[in-house]
Amino acid sequence: MAVIPWLMGLALLAQGCLCSLEQADVGCKTWAQKGDDACCQECHDGNHLVRECGSNPKQLCKLCEPGFYTQKPMDYGCTICTQCVGAQVTLEACTAKTDTKCGCKKGLICGDESCSFCVEKCGKGYELINRTCKPCPGGTFRDESNEKCKPWSTKCPNPNQEIVTQGNASSDIQCVTLVPVIHPKRSDHSEDGHGALIMITGAALMAFCTITITVIVALKTRQKKKEEKPAPPKPIIRTPTDDPRTLIAIECSFHEAQQEQGSSTESLISKETIGQLIV
């Protein structure tokens, strides 16, 4: 137990060193002259009142000693600085003008506004009661945005929303926006059947006509090919003359015609007739 006073003394000494480094005004800040004396109306920050009136205004107020502070410039004394102990940690050291600012170790939070003690950090669905985390009662919840459990909402925030999930210890009710459903207009079944029958009949007629036209075109094309045969070449008949060259040309023409027809006995003019014509 003797260690604790020693640690407190060491802390006060450290704070005193810090305070000594601070450049602070000493004495009375504002005063009023009464006869030969000056009467102090307000001390400088970090000073406490020594006496109200005197000949020297600087001697009317005195700076707080190390380990003490004041925020009331007309008090006759200073307040001892707060010590951060246990689960607390020092965030800002004490000065003559301000008290020590304490915080809490990781995983803990301050139990009050002045952080005079530390408590366990309560998770969702729990709240701090008597420095202990306790579950939220039925019908209430607590999320990270709340400090204490609060009742579930009784309705959705917007009129076109609907509750889909009730709340629990860690969240409020869940709402969704309603989307209007438009149902298509139903037609009469008899009209639907009649229209379907018409479509089927039309498709069948179209298919029948297409097949018929295709068959007719194919038959006509085949018949036309049979009728189109190459015609035999016609013989060239020239009028006989007395010119031997002309007769020779006629004879050659008849010979060519006979060769094409494949028969030499069926010629119109014989070689004897040609010889007579030449004589």
Characterise the protein shown here.
The protein has 279 residues and is of the alpha+beta class. Among the domains are: 24-80, no CATH class; 122-177, Tumor Necrosis Factor Receptor, subunit A, domain 2 (Ribbon); 244-278, no CATH class. The protein contains four helices and 17 strands. Strands 1-2-4 form a three-stranded antiparallel β-sheet, with no helix packed on it. Strands 3-5 form a two-stranded antiparallel ribbon. β10 (108-110) and β11 (118-120) form a beta hairpin. The longest helix is centred in the C-terminal third of the chain and has 39 residues, at 189-227. It is rod-shaped.
* Averaged pLDDT: 76
What is the rounded distance between the termini? 175 Å
Q: What is the radius of gyration computed over CA atoms, rounded to a whole number of angstroms?
A: 64 Å
Q: Please outline the major beta sheet.
A: 3 strands, antiparallel
Indicate the proportion of strand residues: 15-25%
User: What overall form do the CA principal axes indicate?
Assistant: rod-shaped
Order of helices and strands: HEEEEEEEEEEEEEEEEEHHH
Helix content: 25-40%
Q: How many β-strand runs?
A: 17
As residue ranges, the low-confidence spans are 1-22, 246-270
- Structural class given helices, strands, pairing? alpha+beta
